[in-house]
Design brief:
Keywords: Membrane, Transmembrane, Transmembrane helix. This protein is mainly α. 64% of the residues lie in helices and 0% in strands.
Amino acid sequence: MRVLLGVSYLIVAALEMVAPGALAPASGDPFLRSPDLELKSAIALLILAVAASWLVLGIRTRVMALLSVALLLGFAWSNHYIQTGGVWAIYAASAVILSGPLLRFGGGRHALVKGAWQGLA
């Protein structure tokens, strides 16, 4: 489940970095986008891509699941994607639902380093 969620975050981040607004609702973006918002969105997407990569590898799964869903929701909210509904609202809801078990139980037995990296920090 963490791999599926991480890969979906990577796809969203890559699509939005390559073609900003590619995943915008079909009705178009009725809000003006400032250069400041573009920079913040690019930084959020870069951090989302790193967190998603860590999620796929099983590094600090609980922390990365929480960070990833918070970044995704913040990005979608700040770009007014969730408010206009459609696919983004469904994707955001499914990301929250899929992150629940990861937050509760962790990433499972297949992780890069066992024991939540307790001996390393």
